[in-house]
UniProtKB/TrEMBL annotation:
Pfam families: FAA_hydrolase (PF01557). Keywords: Hydrolase, Metal-binding. This is Fumarylacetoacetate hydrolase family protein. GO terms for molecular function: hydrolase activity. Signal peptide: none annotated. SUPFAM superfamilies: FAH (SSF56529). Transmembrane segments: none annotated. Belongs to the FAH family.
Length: 279
């Protein structure tokens, strides 16, 4: 099942066509894309069993963030060994580095992003897990049962403010407007042969700059749900950006940054792609 936000309305994407949730459910579920996750169990049961009407064609550019207003956004740092190495940090143990991307940075899959003046803006393709069932002290072996689905995310990062002292400002440096594109839709785990082993990659102007597999995560999606929920409740509709593999601009010699006119394309196997143009 694929759940999307088409022009502000919740839709199911079936065979490449959009089925309006409110219309198809006879009003049982509303049009708010975020509300789907507050009623996730009932929604999934209905959507799985429903005899859906014919969908309509749509432009991907009309899609918004599939989870537009999460109450909590968790972002995980240094969750691939090769990225930790290129960043000059030790591989984390126990609890991974956690920060947030503020909700106002969240956008849909096809956008224009204004570069901050004087900054070093970097790219980080990431698998994003969407929480569907409240999680508190969840065992790792039970964690997939709390995940509604997976989507593509970009943890776009402005490195100057992120790393400015005396204390780094990770959350601010990663939360400029448009710095958290997500989408194109949320895909439920049952759609994948193995939701724990997906290829992810990104390219700038057609040049591949990142490529990895989520099987190489230091803390897998279930491990993150378990460790985070041991500290605080995870709420339906929360997002977990799971970290990026090697290939970011910060780790290159010489370092490389996004510039006006660049197009960044981010892809994850079995989900789809994001497309950002920088101005």
């Amino acid at each position: 099942m694929r759940i999307a936000n088409l022009a502000g309305r919740a839709v199911l994407v079936d065979g490449g066509l959009a089925v309006d949730v409110e219309t198809a459910s006879g009003g049982r579920f509303g049009s708010d894309p975020q509300a789907v996750y507050r009623e996730w169990e009932a929604f999934r049961e209905w959507a799985t069993a429903a005899d859906l009407p014919a969908g309509t064609a749509f432009e991907v550019a009309a899609l918004g963030a599939p989870v537009p207003a999460p109450r909590q956004v968790f972002a995980i740092g240094l969750n691939y060994r090769d990225h930790a190495a290129e960043s000059g940090f030790e591989v984390p143990e126990g609890l991974p580095p956690v920060f947030t991307k503020f909700v106002t940075s969240i956008t849909g899959p096809v956008t224009e992003v204004t570069l901050p003046p004087g900054g070093h803006t970097d790219w980080e393709v990431e698998l994003v897990a969407v929480i569907g069932k409240a999680a508190r002290n969840v065992a790792e072996e039970d964690a997939w049962g709390h995940v509604a689905g997976l989507t593509v995310g970009q943890d776009i990062s402005e490195r100057v403010s992120q790393l400015a002292g005396p204390v780094p400002q990770f959350s601010l440096g990663k939360s400029f407007p448009g710095f958290a594109p997500t989408g194109p839709w949320v895909v439920t785990p049952d759609e994948f042969a193995d939701p724990a082993d997906l290829e992810l990659k990104s390219a700038i102007n057609g040049e591949e700059v990142q490529k990895g597999r989520t099987r190489d995560l230091i803390f897998s999606v279930p491990a993150l749900v378990a460790r985070l929920s041991a500290v605080l409740p995870l709420l339906p509709g929360d997002l977990v950006f799971t970290g990026t593999p090697a290939g970011v601009g910060l780790g290159r010699t010489p370092q490389r940054w996004l510039t006006a006119g660049d197009e960044l394309v981010s892809q994850i196997e079995g989900i789809g792609e994001l497309r950002q143009r920088f101005i």
